[in-house]
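re: ur question from earlier - yeah i can do the single chain one, its not a big deal. heres the input i used so u can compare w yours
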Amino acid sequence: MEKVKILAIVFTLFLIGCFASARPSKPRSDPDGFRGIKWGTEISTLKDMEKAEQDKSSNSVLVWYTRRGDPLAIGKARLENIFYSFWMGNFKSVWIDFRGDENFEALKKELFEQFGKVHESEELMRRMDRSEGREPSTIRHAEEFYAWWGKKSEMTLSYSRDRHKGTLSIDSTRMSEERRAHERQKGK
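and the output i got, formated as tokens:
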């Protein structure tokens, strides 16, 4: 009986050691903005932004911009475009489009290295689609989908191998919460 207890303790310690070593060695990164622009920055303070389009569908003040001289790459991935959204004049999110399997793999590798483990995709998509006040998921038909949720930022990477197109979306958690609260208040 004593041998069984000792073996159980040794086995438990072994399992704890295995799981502890499986954790990432560096803490997850949680960006507080994108390319030097912090979440919540007022558009009036940025001189290199050009208005792209405005989202009139949600009846909100959400304006999209591009940035002059913005390198269309992240790591080795080449990007098609980068759109910066400003809600009520404050930096809220980034929407990035890209094409091709090679660019997707390079971007995925870069994001995994910077931000660590992702949330499980199927359960996450169901949660995103059911979340009250959250905009409908744009990744519903993506073949590959990854998400990182931090205290400062929420990121989603989606890719359709059929269409050879993908998107990376990075949102300010605080600004998204403020926008949802504003929309709920407006609806009352």
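The CA atoms of residues 29 and 115 lie 5 Å apart. not sure if urs matches, ping me
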